[in-house]
Fold this protein.
Amino acid sequence: MPRTAVFFHAHPDDEALLTAGTMAMLAAEGHRVVLVVATAGERGLAEMEKGEALGEARMRELYKSAAALGCARVVCLDYGDSGLSPSGGVAEERPDNAFIDADSEEAAKALAAVLDEERADLLTIYDPAGGYGHPDHVQVHRVGRRAAQIAGTPIVLEATVNRDPLIRALRLAGRFYRFPPEFDLRTFESAYTAGDQITHRVNVRKYAWQKRASMSAHVSQASGGDGDRTLAVLLKIPGPLYRLVFGTEWYVRRDLPPGTRLRHPFDEAP
């Protein structure tokens, strides 16, 4: 029986990195996939001037990504991109409607309205640390969890990364590719989630080309500054290695017991 899954992300391109394979898989299986972003990402990395023009460009890229993944609907909650400080924390200069400054209850009600309208069976958010700690990602966790409570959405999955094989894979990739200056492997040693906490390991190798197409859609985030950004470098990884690195997507479902190992977002513990 077809179900509805809502994927909640902070900015355009976040879906490409963390959940694109799962989204493509569910769409191919006949489920309704809805992509919601909190912001248009108007303060992201790009050669064009930050602001409205960048936000419009990134939303166009988001729709292109969503089409590649088979999404039925795209929604932007229209909060401002909070940005990052040079140290990776909350930026001092940010818009008045920055997502990080939003009232969590009001933002949760806005997302819950989408969940209600869609009669969502599943919502994905981020882990409590927001993966690598971006303030907007942490807010996605808080807002998303509360929205699921308001709407009564039965399944909440925290999209994350199993940092154990990720570190090994990135070290291997580093032998062949020169990562950009802002990429620091050490940050992954405390980011995301340890393998023993993960409940869902979803094999998405069959949908690697859709995931790669989703990444490729976000051209504004592939360059800027002194050269290629992380997204551009990842897209240069050859197909077999790409499927190895990005062939699994990981989630944590907090209402399941530790040690649960499931293979599909809608699977229940035995």
